[in-house]
Amino acid sequence: MKEQTLMPATHASLQEMQEWMEKTLETSKAYTLNVAKAMPSGGWTSKPADSIWNFGELIHHIAYGIQWWQENYVKGNPTSWDPPAVKENQNEVLTYLEKSYDELRKTINRTTLTVEMMKGFLATLDHITHHRGQAVIYLRYQGITPPEYTY
Prior knowledge:
Layout: H1 11-38, H2 55-74, H3 90-110, H4 115-141
Helix pairs in contact: 1-3, 1-4, 2-3, 2-4
């Protein structure tokens, strides 16, 4: 099936769309990092129930998820789900998260905007938002007021 470009669209409207995507991604990155950094290092192994990820594993999952969704649904390269081992160090996980966001931003800036790419971008944001919301619950479970929501 031939991939659809966002037509009819002028160069200016495509540029505006890419700018919106980049701004939205940067806002998501800043807020997600603020949520992750709000958890003190001693809380990174905490979890509200035994059957779920701890906070560090959850943040690591967000980072890997960005990479996986980007490959599969933004770039269109079928990739199996094969996350790396969870990093134990809080700073390593935060760096991994930042790099994942930065790679997605680079992909958006280097790729021709198509309907499928836009769908993939929005699905990636949805996945991030879903798990970031869980991270906010983890903070509240620890008695920590989460950072103010930004959009």
